[in-house]
Design brief:
Number of helices: 6
Largest sheet: 6 strands, antiparallel
Oligomer: single chain
Helix content: 25-40%
Order of helices and strands: HHHEEHHEEEHE
Radius of gyration: 20 Å
Number of strands: 6
Length: 238
């Protein structure tokens, strides 16, 4: 889950959003060179796959919407193998990718591994970069790295709040999504120890967002569709 886009869009929404026109589809050239390029491109991709083996999960990138792994219910992890090298590699890759992208939460399916594991972290530096008003409105707070294996979510406050969310698996877009104000999560940490944590504000939103990924649910399934935007829409008008 990407939080920087969310804060920006909250500020942007106060000034209103202008409607954008769809780009005109350019005419297709009827030249021989164009049709040849269509044939050549897949052939070059074929050669690339033959020469260079494609990466395998856990990926060092985030899977994008359309990848089937984002739409299946993730499998539970056997508690006895949480500390095994294979699971530790998945967790380590999740943390590395999350920090490289400067996002505040990530799930195992997002790096191509359909297992019930989520990670979240809200660094102090990120909090300092946010506006004081945003901190109060969104309920932002510093959170250390937390790993949950086989997490179970319980709603503590049935009231919901509607704020913009973004997702690294739907890169470049955002929408307003209703989330519960306070939740409790229980599961195992990266050491295989039982843990429970109560979260509110933006931390509760992150948890709900990442937990959805474990069930093949994306924020677009819960969003207010009229708020769905391209976060760079202004740049296209410049």
């Amino acid at each position: 889950m990407n939080t920087k886009s969310c804060v920006f869009l909250l500020q942007l929404s106060r000034t209103g959003l202008r409607a954008a026109c769809l780009p005109r589809v350019p005419p297709v050239p009827r030249s021989h060179s164009y049709s040849s390029s269509i044939k050549v491109r897949p052939y070059l991709q074929y050669l690339k796959r033959k020469i260079i083996s494609p990466p395998s999960p856990p990926y060092s990138h985030v899977c994008q919407v359309g990848d089937p792994v984002l739409r299946v219910r993730a499998a539970a992890v056997d508690p006895a193998v949480v500390t095994d090298p294979e699971i530790q590699r998945v967790i380590g890759t999740m943390v590395k990718v999350m920090r490289n992208l400067e996002c505040v939460g990530l799930s195992a399916p997002q790096i191509g591994v359909p297992l019930r594991i989520v990670a979240l972290e809200y660094p102090e530096m990120m909090l300092k970069e946010s506006l004081p008003a945003s901190r109060e409105i969104l309920g932002l707070s510093v959170q250390p790295l937390r790993i949950f294996v086989n997490p179970l979510l319980r709603v503590l406050d049935g009231q919901t709040a509607l704020f913009q969310e973004a997702c690294e698996s739907i890169s470049g877009f955002s929408a307003a999504v209703p989330r519960y104000l306070s939740v409790e999560v229980s599961g195992l940490n990266e050491k295989g120890e039982a843990v429970t944590w109560r979260a509110s504000g933006w931390s509760a939103r992150i948890l709900q967002h990442e937990m959805d990924h474990l069930d093949g649910v994306l924020y677009v399934d819960r969003m207010d569709s009229k708020t769905f935007i391209n976060i760079s829409w202004q740049e296209h008008n410049e």
